[in-house]
Structures are given as C-alpha cells and as structure tokens.
Design a protein that fits this description.
Radius of gyration: 21 Å
Order of helices and strands: HHHHEHEHEEEHEHHHEHEHEHEHEHHHHH
Structural class: alpha/beta
Number of strands: 11
Largest sheet: 8 strands, parallel, barrel
Distance between the termini: 33 Å
CATH class of the largest domain: Alpha Beta
CATH superfamily of the largest domain: Aldolase class I
Bound molecules: iron/sulfur cluster
Helix content: 40-55%
Length: about 475
C-alpha cells in the first residue's frame, strides 16, 4: 500500500540494475533440493538454527518443504519460540494501523482500494479527522501506530499527516512512534520522511515472483517491479536505516515467496550491514470489489495457505532471520494468534480497523481494504497475551534513543536487545495497566509484571523497580 513518485529524479536512477537481489533460478533449485531432504537433514537444520545465526537459503528451502510433516512443524515452532525468547524475551510489542486515505492510482487485483473498485467511497482524512482517530487510539492505550495510505501523487499530505499524529495528545496519551506503509518514495521523499521522524519504513513486495507480480499489478506505478524491489536500497541511501519488508501470502507459491523474502533480507544485511527490522507475512483475505478475492473468488485461489502451512512460514522465518521482528496482524483469528504468540512472533496489531476513519464508531463505513479476523478490542488482546505467559509491551525506546540501523543490529544479532526489551516492556505495560486497563486485565497484568520483574538481572531489577515506583507516583514515559 501506498504513494508513488510522479517523476523519477536523476539521482533516483537505479544503480543496482546489474545486481540480482532476487535470483529466481537459485530459489527454484533450492526448493527442488529441499523437497528431497531427509529427516536427519531437517533435524540438523533445526538444531543449527538454535545457534541464532540464521539459515542459508538452501536450509530455509528445506524447512519450507516440511508442510506435510506434523512432527517437523512442531519442532520448528518450538525452536522459533526458544529463539525469539532468547533474543527478545517474552515481550510482544503492540501497534495499531491508521488508514489515512483510500485514494489509489493502482489496480492491485487483491485490494479493495484498487482504482477500478467503483463502488467504494473515496476519502482522505482531514487533519481534524486524523486528530480524532489518534485520540481514540490514545484513549485505548496505543503508543505506536502504522500509518497507511493509498498511492496518490500528493506526497506532502503524508508528511502533514505524520506531523498531526505526533502532535496529538489526549489526557496521558501520546503516539511515540509512527511507522509508515507508503508506496516506494524517491530519495528526496525519504529524506523528508526522515526529517519528520518516521519510525520504520514498511513496504511489501507482495510477491517476489516477477510474472505473478506483473499479473497482480496490471497498471499504475506499482506495475514497476524493480522500482518497488529497490525501495529499501533508496531508503538506506537516504539515511532511513529502519525498514520492514513482507509478502502477501496467497498470491503465489508461499515457499517461493518466503524464500525470496529471506533472500531479500540477506541481501540487505550483506550490502548495508542492516537487515530488515521487521517482516510481515499477512495471508490473503476477502477484499470486496476485487477480481482475486471477493466473496466468490477467494476460495478458488490455489495458492491459499492452510493453517499449518502458515504456522510453518512463521516458524521458518524466525529460524532463518532470527534477529528480525516478526509481525502478526488481525488478519488471523484469535485462536491462531494465541498459538503463534509463543512461536516466534514479536509484534502484534490489535483493535485494528482497516477502514479509513474506522476508529470513530459513528463515522465507520464498510470500506475496509480487506476483512480482518480478530476484531477484539485492545484490552482483550492484552489480557490474552498475559494469559499466554507473555508480557505486553508498548515500547518505542530504540528509535527515540537512536538505536536504529547498525546500532540495533549489534544488539539484535547477539540477542542482548532483551536487556532493553524486557525492562521497557515492564515500564510501558505498567503505564497501560494504570491508565487504560480494565479491572480484570489490571489484576492479571500486575501478577505477570511482578513475575517478569523477578527474572531481570539484579541491577536492572533494582533500577526498573525504582522506575516503576516513579510511574506510580505520576511520572510517565520512562525507558532505557
Ligand atoms: Fe496499495 Fe491497494 Fe493501492 Fe495496491 S490498490 S497500491 S495494495 S492501496
Ligand atoms: Fe523494540 Fe527496542 Fe523497545 Fe526492544 S527495546 S521493544 S527492540 S523499541
């Protein structure tokens, strides 16, 4: 999703055209070999992954071919849980998407915001409407948003929207980090985004398979596969070193697309010393007014994943890219989300609306980009995370402390980031419990918080305890 440049300026000419970011032939060979791998080889790869150094593309391909092996799936998910907890601890970071407009010049076959969906009422939120949406999200307790917009030539309105979000304060509420999902910007546009303080820049390739990509994106600027593929290169060149990639599962063979996603991450890591901060693998859902996935056509799609295949994907990504944040959205059911909270996932959205203006109940219209499966309010999902043995987090510390790019990679790769993640989770969760939680969530949450506090190393426990007391005495926004 997102805003595309009208003019490509000279400095934006791709300098990487001779480099193979995605080598399709290599991926197919790896998958072919992966199908022939024996049990011993699979087990060896899972054991190797526990060293938290990641997997080669060939090893990743082997694991992606295990979807008919329930025992291997269990082993992958257990390894994913261990790796995630050793790197990040038991925290799960919360965020909510904020759709600021559904105008779009593209025609993606799977998206309700596509240009040719004539029945859709088009809308771009005014600054006042954005403020109202943000106030509602702040009242729920959110501190981190993902701003999403369709692809329009009006890039400036995205910058204004970002400023409006950061400027909105209601009671104790404030949004401390805004990640953005926008169409691939130019270098200059990336610099402007950086100047207004974006968190992570997120852009999905949707599918890395070129022919399928061409079919899914028949016209509009998004039809340019290579402009999209090289967007993260432009981000790094413009000084935006916190990026997030993804694929839309169900457009093509998931094994190919997930292998390519891993290959893209490895390319960025090798070239810039910084891999993707996070990856996302949403599954295709019903999207009204689309040729590919309206109520009648979605089920006929031969590339839809089964639940077990989806779980395998989540687990394999954690093993292949151990230091990368892994996002789980409300496209999945509450039951699936609960299971995956303990299988490698590290970030979750909750209380989400995919309609423009959807957080304002009186203003809600049936015009979402796609349908979601988990419509529970934030408080219920927070409670659910506590019950799963994890600690909800509203942390935004790294971006505000300048821990991005290589700095955060140096903490993520050896797994020392959890020395920040866990104390910050406790501090931000404490704020949530005091300011927003229902009574039941507060009681369950305080118990969980006390238990997790005891798990901190002695000095950190003492300092975190002091800061928790300061929060109880009325201070806010304390972090390491
Ligand atoms: Fe994004 Fe939808 Fe527009 Fe495609 S049609 S660019 S997915 S908003
Ligand atoms: Fe994310 Fe950094 Fe906070 Fe950990 S400490 S949750 S990596 S922002």
């Amino acid at each position: 999703m997102c805003s595309h440049p009208v003019i490509k300026k000279p400095q934006d000419k791709i300098k990487w055209s001779n480099e193979k970011i995605i080598d399709e032939a290599f991926i197919w060979q790896a998958l072919e070999a992966g199908r022939r791998a024996g049990t011993e080889q699979v087990k060896w790869i899972i054991t190797k992954a526990l060293e938290k150094k990641g997997l080669s593309l060939e090893e990743t391909a082997v694991l992606l071919c295990q979807d008919q092996q329930p025992e291997r799936l269990s082993e992958v998910l257990e390894a994913a849980r261990r790796i995630k907890e050793e790197i990040y601890g038991k925290r799960l970071v919360f965020f909510a998407p904020l759709y600021i407009g559904n105008q779009c010049v593209n025609n993606c076959l799977y998206c309700a915001y596509r240009r040719d969906h004539r029945g859709l009422e088009r809308r771009t939120l005014s600054p006042g409407e954005i403020t109202r949406q943000v106030e509602i999200l702040e009242d729920q307790g959110h501190k981190r948003l993902l701003m999403v917009a369709g692809d329009t030539p009006d890039f400036q309105s995205n910058l204004e929207a970002l400023k409006t979000i950061y400027a909105t304060r209601k009671n104790q509420g404030e949004i401390r980090r805004v990640n953005v999902n926008l169409a691939p910007p130019t270098l200059d546009q990336f610099r402007e985004l950086k100047a207004v303080g974006i968190g992570t820049y997120q852009c999905f390739q949707e599918t890395y398979h070129r022919m399928t990509y061409q079919y899914m994106h028949p016209d509009g600027p998004k039809a340019d596969y290579f402009w999209r593929l090289t967007v993260m290169d432009r981000a790094f060149q413009a000084g935006v070193d916190d990026v997030s990639t993804g694929v839309l599962l169900g457009l093509f063979d998931y094994r190919f697309d997930v292998a390519a996603l891993v290959m893209h991450g490895q390319y960025l890591d090798k070239r810039y010393g910084v891999g993707p901060h996070a990856v996302s693998v949403p599954r295709l859902r019903v999207a009204h007014g689309t040729p590919l996935c309206d109520d009648n056509t979605l089920e006929a799609n031969k590339y839809l994943l089964s639940d077990d295949q989806f779980k395998l994907v989540v687990g394999v990504i954690r093993l292949a890219l151990p230091y990368t944040g892994l996002i789980l959205t409300t496209r999945e059911t509450p039951a699936m989300r609960q299971e995956l909270f303990n299988a490698g996932v590290s970030q979750v959205s909750a209380g989400s609306q995919t309609e423009v203006g959807g957080y304002n109940r009186e203003d809600q219209r049936p015009a979402g980009q796609f349908e979601i499966e988990d419509r529970r309010p934030l408080d219920e999902v927070v409670r659910n995370v506590v019950e799963s043995g994890n600690i909800p987090s509203f942390c935004t510390a790294c971006y505000r402390k300048g821990r991005t790019g290589e700095v955060i990679m140096d903490l993520l790769k050896p797994g020392t980031i959890k020395n920040y993640c866990l104390p910050n989770a406790l501090l931000t969760f404490k704020e949530y419990l005091m300011d927003y939680a229902s009574r039941g969530t507060r009681e369950a949450g305080e118990k969980q918080l006390a238990g997790q506090l005891m798990g901190l190393e002695e000095n950190m426990r003492a300092e975190t305890t002091r800061r928790l007391e300061r929060l109880e005495n009325g201070e806010r926004d304390l972090y390491f």
